[in-house]
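Contributing new records

If you add data, match the layout below exactly. Sequence lines come first and carry their own label; structure lines follow with theirs. Keep one chain per record. Anything else will be rejected by the validation script.
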Amino acid sequence: MLNQVRVLVLLLVVLLPAMLPVSANDDADGNSDGDGVAVGDSPTFELPLEFLGTIGGDIELGLLINTGNTEAHSIRINSELSHEMEYFRNKYQVYGRIQRSKVLNASTAQNDDVTTAKRYGITGQSNYKFLIGRQSLFGRGAYLYDMFGAFKVQSSLAVGYANRVYEMQANYIDLETGPGFAHQRSASGRTNTGLIWFLAFNMEQKIYQGSSFKQTFEGSVSLDGANSTFVSRSSLTSQLFDKLSMRFSFTARHNSRPEGDLKTMDTETAASLVYTF
């Protein structure tokens, strides 16, 4: 009986420390880190959420329907995404617009449903931030297809220097400039590829709670005397409730050397619903 008691006491002495909770002093001794991850010869690696940065953006949707003497319907979508990281600032934009209209066919005396507008494009840019200040180096790529525009296809690549000359909370002003090259295909199928100089101005300003004004200007100046392109977009966004807003925007696109009798300026005025995430 005495031997059994001795064995029981010995087991309690061995097992009791393992059953007790870990105290704060144990953390100080280096047995575990503050997140409860064991520290030893083979530590567990956990990727911090800060490494992924912050992601935000919005989706803009506009719809137009005409009935009666003029029958047409069009849909417009625009999405802008920003990804802010410790050393990189990335932004992406996807745009699309299509319009279908009823047009009288003289040979059949019937209204045919035809496409009267078709435009879509994508832009991506990444800025590498310097360790000190608001300066950065950027790389940018853009592609635009416009069925009835001055040029059916316009694409470009550019690299250069950027400077956030003003920043206060959500308000900012960015200036960007640098060399690149562009490829263009006109409505008749003629193509041109050459060097450009890219420049941009981006500004966003909060007007009052829930409302903001944004202005962007981008220019691709041809260095070999070909067509130069300038795009300006102004938008006013006002919050309706929660993450839903209303946006009024005006976009102007200027091509310096369109083909034939095509106009140099295309404009678009839109009112859209915006979902922010």
